[in-house]
Amino acid sequence: MRGASITRAPPDLLDEIVIEILVRLPVKSLVRFKSVSRTWRAIISSEFFIRAQLEQSSASSRQRDPSFLITLHALPHPGEIWPTPFSTHFRFYQWRPGTGDDDITNNKQAAAPLVYETDMAGNKLISRVRCCCIAHCDGLVLAPTDAKLYLFNPATRNAVVLPNNDDIPPATRRVLPLRRRSGARSQDRQVQGGSVVLPVAGLQ
Amino acid sequence: MAAPESGDGNNGAARMVTLISSDNTRFEVEAAAASLSQTLQLTILDGGGGGGDGIPLPNVDSATLSKVLEYCIKHAPAAANGGAPNATAVDRAELERFDNEFVNIDQSVLYSLIMAAHNLEIEGLQSLVAKKVADMIKGKSPMEIRRTLGFPDPTPEEQAEMNAHMLEYGWAYE
Predict the structure, then answer these.
(1) Which PANTHER family has this protein been placed in (chain A) (predicted)?
(2) Is B83 at the interface with chain A, CB within 8 A?
């Protein structure tokens, strides 16, 4: 980037090119590059950029680099169905089909490396609290229980407990049909051993 | 607006246009290839660039322009088919192989290319080069990026911000 032509470029064009490059980077690089300069931070944090990056990464993920987000959920009894007892310890793994075998033999890497884990409240299996169903959209994961709503962004390692509205009785709370809107519902599947596999668009 | 001259009288003889680089080198190329540039497309549709006229490109030097045209010539047939519904998997694989090799070049050439692709608005080339640069920089540290871009050394205040960011988001630096 020492080339003379880049310093001669008008600033508008430079910004445009910087955005075009940044938009193709994975989230982890983007988090790191927020510290390159204040301009870069402003670009990467902007609403416009976040949307563009999501669009770009979902498109390229659909085309050639699909990956799945896996979260473990221990089902105490075979054949158990939702809602189930709920652990506040969440782990998210990322799996890219086709890369796993090679990684294991050559690089001694996990087939599905851990992306993010968090404990929302002391790692206890709270048997009375039940997790209703896990929903996801654009790389966000929503875990509703009959006590609280947990929202995760595994790519940016953010987790929030959504504000609880105690005025609404638990039985009447409903989770918005995020999955249907993401259009990825048919890819959802539950694999043996009780893991839930979610397709993930862009991890943003 | 004049209609594009279909076939130039003789069946199969493709219409040619002339492009002139910033250092005054003339490039003669098929109109279909040059039309991959949104910037040139209208001029060419209007009948420009033919004969002895030539279209001057004051922002693109000859080394860069010849590289750009190499891309356009290779991609023109597929573009003419409108995304090429009849393109075979072999054709697509061949284009992909060409693209990979095409951007396997020196950094400084890449940056001239991305500027030219923007100036000429050649969408496919813009994203091809942007993807390549993204792949090249994705593992770098913020300091490495600053140095590569020729940013001045961070002020003590900026340095403190960078250190704080690294502490807070250690996982992104692993």
Answers:
(1) BNACNNG10540D PROTEIN, F-BOX PROTEIN CPR30-LIKE
(2) no
Q: Does residue A97 sit in the same domain as residue A14?
A: no
B42 close contact with A: CB closer than 8 A? no
State whether A15 and A36 are in the same domain.
Answer: yes
Structure tokens at B18: 């002339």
Closest chain A residue to the Cα of B173, Cα to Cα: A32
Please say which residue of A30, A46, A63 terminates a domain.
A63
Chain A residue closest in CA terms to B109: A3
For A57, which residue in chain B has the nearest alpha carbon? B131
The DSSP line for A122-156 is TT-EEEEEEE---EEETTEEEEEBSS-EEEEETTT
Residues A57 and A93 both lie in one domain = no
In a domain, A204, yes or no: no
Full domain range(s) for residue A154: 68-199
Same domain, A132 and A91: yes
Report the distance separating Cα A89 and Cα B14, nearest Å. Answer: 66
pLDDT in tens, B95-133: 999 999 999 998 889 989 999 999 999 999 999 999 999
Please give the single-letter amino acid code of residue B167.
Answer: L
Which of A15, A29, A32, A53 best tests the B interface by mutation, with the highest count of B CBs <10 A?
Answer: A32
